[in-house]
Amino acid sequence: xxxxxxxxxxxxxxxxxxxxxxxxxxxxxxxxxxxxxxxxxxxxxxxxxxxxxxxxxxxxxxxxxxxxxxxxxxxxxxxxxxxxxxxxxxxxxxxxxxxxxxxxxxxxxxxxxxxxx
Length: 117
Known about the structure:
four-stranded parallel sheet; globular; two-stranded antiparallel ribbon; single chain
């Protein structure tokens, strides 16, 4: 079934990527998922403020990074968030970004998502 429009096509690709990524998640893994939306018996560490007040399947543990709330995406950002993440050692991470640079690594066009030093 072909997508009807660009939005449908993007959703289709997101689902394909999510299914592919899920194949790498194992029982009792600790994973980091940023403000994307995808999560078995796992611990999810996220800066996604939308995780608050949601119902989760049994076996899904949610840890919030804390930090300054960026209201447009309900993302927790800033130095507090970065300091907390420096103490996290996840086996796998699923992180969205605007681009990838050989020199700079992951990039974003959103200033508040960066290190504010």
